[in-house]
């Protein structure tokens, strides 16, 4: 016999209030992509042009998709699989896809978290010089043992927080970590803007303020229609991944939110926190890298964090050790809060599917993810191989799983969600829930228009681009 909605609601864990929900959700949204991908894209895509496009997308597309995920969770009181089945029985398969995404992401997130843990430990113990030796990062990740050990430590820390539950684990840690992360980012960004460097060969003096200019002031000199489309695509992808859309996380967190919480204000705060951290990261990374290497020194992905910035901090001497330690602490916090959110999404679904306790689901998943962390870390050594991906890149084990979960499944899930809510059950499914607190939904018209027309089109383009189909159709992507 099925439980009634009232019985189910009574058993659900709850956030303590709006602040706890916002900080926990911001912890999900603020991840390593804010620290290493956002600054790189901003520097590559014309500085202020990318930032401007990103901000516009954040208050339109990002707001729409984030609000949709949260409302699905709060209105149904279920995690992904149960939530989509509750909305429409025939669309349960979308909930299954949503569940698969975080399950796959968590399988390799411990590996990346282990890298951050290792470098945080290096800075804490004063071994910054060791970390800057040529080829050190490559030697570390190709070691068959060390990356797995650090990865397991990282997954264990994630487990400890999730075992504490929603209020005493996730929310309590977020109330401490997120303000601390914001303060450290602000302090480091202010310091970064005071830097300057004189080139020993040319005598050229580069200042952080010059780098800030590159970062924030739009460069329209070489802007073509094709380049603007690429900037738009880059900003959309960054925002899509940054907010944790289509991973079931916000659906799960939404199910923990009381009806009295103002979702309008909460979503605004989450976006402000996430975007603010991304902008601060850019204020640290772009000017700092510009000072010591020029704009040509900006690289993407792990190389920016573990090689370029590590060398910059070493060049700065004793002060670099202090600043570098603070920066890697922020990276560690960002990785940990995101990991907790991903892990919680998987745990919550397993609790519903298998009718088990939080403790049992969390511990069983811990051993599973320890296994995947070891396996995927060995993908850089014993199990190393490369395969061509549909987006044109070459990938090994981690890249393949990352591509399938992020570039293939997430845009597909978002597209199907837009169709389900926008056209099958209707936007009123969301708008009525937002207004249940008695407050008006002032952005209703924008939300409905984005949900039914713009967001599905954007998701379709993103899906076609990531799968290589767009390139086959129009020769671009």
UniProtKB/TrEMBL annotation:
GO terms for cellular component: membrane. It is a multi-pass membrane protein. The chain crosses the membrane at residues 12-36, 48-72, 93-116, 145-164, 176-196, 228-251, 272-295, 326-351, 363-383, 403-425, 446-464. Pfam families: SNF. The keyword Transmembrane helix applies. Keywords: Membrane, Transmembrane, Transmembrane helix, Transport. The keyword Transmembrane helix applies. It is found in: Membrane. InterPro entries: Na/ntran_symport, SNS_sf, YocR/YhdH-like. This is Neurotransmitter:Na+ symporter, NSS family. It comes from [Clostridium] aminophilum.
